[in-house]
Amino acid sequence: MGLRDLVKNKFSAVVIFGMVALAAALVSGCKKNDNGPLGTGSTAAPSADVSDAADAVSDALASNNGGAMDQVNDVFEIADEVAVGGGVLGKTDADTTINGAVYNSTTMSWEKTVVKGDSLLYPAYYGYWTRIYWLQFRANGAPQEFRKTNNVAADTIHHQTLGGSGHFWTPRLVHHLAGISSDWIASGTNTDTVTINGTYTWSGIDTIKTTGRAGRVLNRTIALTFSNVKGPRGPRVARSAETSGTIDVVYTATVLVPGKAPYQVNESFSIELGGGNATFSIEGTKFVSDLATGVH
Q1: What pLDDT shows up at residue 119?
Q2: Which of left, alpha, beta for 259 (phi over 0: left; psi -120 to 50: alpha)?
Q3: 78-82, 176-180, 200-204, 257-261 — which is least confidently predicted?
Q4: pTM (2 decimals)?
Q5: How many CB atoms lie within 10 A of CB 262?
Q6: Which has the closest alpha carbon to 116: 131, 102, 133?
Q7: Radius of gyration, CA atoms only, the chain
Q8: Of 67, 108, 36, whose CA–CA distance to 222 is shortest?
Q9: Residues facing residue 251 across a β-bridge
Q10: Where are the domains of the chain?
């Protein structure tokens, strides 16, 4: 499928106000929870490796830069026909362009390419990403062409991310996506609440610009396992605040520091979603990350 139109920004007063507010939040930098390490009451700063891991996982989840929550929200929309119409898949988001979706009658599945981006505050902030989706609607265990076929609504969507590209930069880091994939089963798609289970893998190369860690280059892979991640189907209006569930994380990184030998970092932990945040602990330090922006 060839790409058609690129993303066109809508410079409305509401969007500008929102982006300026986001910029202010991001400029404030990434910080750990004020309560310090869990169970100790200590206010000691986490190590650079722990801070790097928290940054990477927060960004890999954030919906405003193509993280996992962006794809979760796409599934919630598809489940409510926001992304389905006229026999093809098409989005209604102002920041999204969808190429013509292709239906495979043999496998009874759809494939589409999503192109998104944000350059309103360029050059301080910039993001661009693409995702290739494969999906199949199912009702009572049997595949069907549309979300609603012969007046029967699909109760399940099998959704996969087959690949994609992406990069973004902010005052604290520069990111280049190396690989991405996911395999989710979204159930309850004929109800008000959709439940997602499955796996998601993200890898990328990041250059840290934050004071005290500037110059660090990290080649990172993050494997996420979604367990009963629930949210409302329909348009993405403050949806992250209504998303709940658990995500198990396996984080690995090869760290390059100027003047030092490369070394590897491995972390495993769980994330709890709720109230628009991802709450997790790495080596005893608690973090609370905003699911929309990745700021914590």
Answers
A1: 62
A2: left
A3: 78-82
A4: 0.80
A5: 10
A6: 131
A7: 19
A8: 67
A9: 222, 267
A10: 13-290
